[in-house]
């Protein structure tokens, strides 16, 4: 109030022009400072973006276009400016390769790629025949190597992997065979190819060592299908993962097979400093008495990771329905051009399959497969437009909004202490 009155006095004092001089000098200095700050800010921002990472061609293009835009147009609203910069942020930007067209050759731009599946003796050729044949038909159109391991009698695996559980032994086996390739796609035995017009390179991201995706129905980071690069770091990650079969366990607790450990392992890997929250999520996991309670643990991890989807040099997590695979039952095996693989086909023989909406008119004869679409006998009407699949996913989500377990809806800090159990050391790590 006082300042305003004084200012009025200054402005209303034409007979004392000298008193206005400090006022104008003040404004001049503020304007000059502002210009200087704006320049320094842009420069440091540019510098912050550049080091450390090899920039892709697209990022460079963005930078150049944006630099020209900034020079040619003096009126760039602030929010547009920050959106342009956000697009350059490596942890926010998705990177998509050009899709495969008309079954063309998949260029080995990421080196050797191996597709890896592992089954125990009981499962081999019992429940997964159809999925495996579709995969082999796809592979006939590519140069990827295919390794199908029988976990019970594979010598190389048994030498290094003493794991008791098939679920965990599989990840150890993947670490063993990873040494033979540059990138590996680990697949569940019930993952089928529905649309071969995709290359694995579309989904490999060379800014990271591991590529995961979220499952549609519960936001869980899927553990059955993932890409992994052959590095010492990622082999260590897989071994640590496999060794989590020895996680302490109380009877009656739902740990979620090999799904549960992966969430916590990833959290530890990308945010090792978040000690308290890791402990909170870990406790929720180890006290889950049912799948419904387990979803509270999933939410805890999801809140910790937030919207960041890529940790440079470490891993990337695709959004639901945006990776190379999703559950087939979400859309009753209806598929669209964006779809590549469908998960959850536990069918050995189509003749006695029940409750299975088959996208094909007949089973695969792998010898008929090769370049082009020979061997793929599509049933008319099973392929949909992206718009139609979008509608099906939208409806699924609407249903989910009602049916998702109530335990998976409350943030961890409203179900247990956030500060009360660590004060005054909650910020230490
Ligand atoms: C496999 O690799 C060879 C040699 O690089 C190449 O000529 C051929 O076109 C590739 N085939 C496919 C199906 O990618
Ligand atoms: C399905 O049919 C095959 C023969 O075509 C048979 O060997 C198999 O046991 C059948 N499976 C079931 C679950 O009926």
From TrEMBL:
Its domain of life reads: Eukaryota
Membrane-traversing stretches: 20-38
Which UniProt keyword terms apply here?
Answer: Membrane, Transmembrane, Transmembrane helix
First and last residue of the signal peptide: none
The protein's matches in Pfam families, at most eight in alphabetical order, are given as: DUF273
Report the protein name in the record.
Answer: Nucleotide-diphospho-sugar transferase domain-containing protein
Which organism is the protein's source?
Steinernema carpocapsae (Entomopathogenic nematode)
